Amino acid sequence: MKGSIIITGASRGIGASLAVRAAAAGYEVCVNFHSNQGAADEVVQKITEAGGRAIAVQGDVAVEQDILSLFKTVDRELAPLTALVNNAGILETHASVTDMTFDRLQRVMTTNVTGSFLCAKEAVTRMALSKGGQGGGIVNISSVAARLGSPHEYVDYAASKGAIDAFTIGLAKEVAEDGIRVNAVRPGVIYTDIHKLGGEPDRVDRVKENVPMKRGGLPEEVAKAALWLLSEEASYSTGILLDVSGGR
Ligand code: NAP
User: How far apart are CA 135 and CA 173, in angstroms?
Assistant: First the structure.
């Protein structure tokens, strides 16, 4: 049995693609979402119609109580947890660092960094061999922004992804003996709604000229890489940062 997987932010974009593919790979899937219940229900329906098992669970990864109740719901309703993808992430309107407010910085860091830490904490508590779990895998969705820096757009977001890279490397070493592998995927520019948050919905088409492959990526191209890292095919890989970015 493959057990269950929690994918944060799985109602749309990369997370939704991951959810459908994880179900096809045999996981029972928790489709976490923030506010778009309709989109999450559609992902669950797609999985169920294909013969899989999934539930949609609302929860803000920036709120610890929401995270705790998300994991408790999965304990109650799905098979034992064997995988987590920390996928939920936000960015804010293009701005220079000199224009960034305290509140903005807090929102970005709490959602992207603290949320990933707290979800991983709950997952490790359940999956670690030393705690009676059966081992498992964690994939953090980082970004190539961590090494590009995103000047005058969102250095805060890029820095939050830099934190995710360090978190991936450190946690991987902490839990390796507990049968848990921790890796990150660093997407380049991918066709999803996230670019609307930055105030430029068509950002991918502008930036793609700077991509050696001269195109934006698709959510499923990121999802496939994340699922590979979770699979037995990647059994000796932990603490790696896998770029899925068309060479950028
Ligand atoms: P997206 O299309 O904007 O979807 C975001 C998802 O996250 C939605 O399911 C949304 O739920 C959920 N979400 C947002 N805030 C949340 C919160 N506080 N708690 C729980 N869920 C929350 O984003 P995406 O482009 O697929 O991005 C997924 C990940 O890939 C992010 O970590 C992002 O930083 C990373 N990434 C994306 C790109 C890119 O070009 N797209 C590039 C590099 C890295 P609702 O539907 O309920 O709002």
Answer: 14
**Distance in Å, CA 15 to ligand 1 centroid:** 7
pLDDT tens digits, residue range 36-45? 999 999 999 9
Q: Is 130 exposed, middle or buried (0-12, 13-18, 19+ CB in 10 A)?
A: exposed
CB-ligand 1 contact for 189 (6 Å cutoff): yes
Angle at 67 between CA 136 and CA 103, to 5 degrees: 125
Topology (CATH level 3) of domain 4-188+218-244? Rossmann fold (3.40.50)
Task: Give the whole-angstrom CA distance, residue 127 versus residue 83.
Answer: 8
Asked if residue 61 has its Cβ within 6 Å of ligand 1, the reply is yes
pLDDT (tens digit, 9 = 90+) per residue, 155-175? Answer: 999 999 999 999 999 999 999
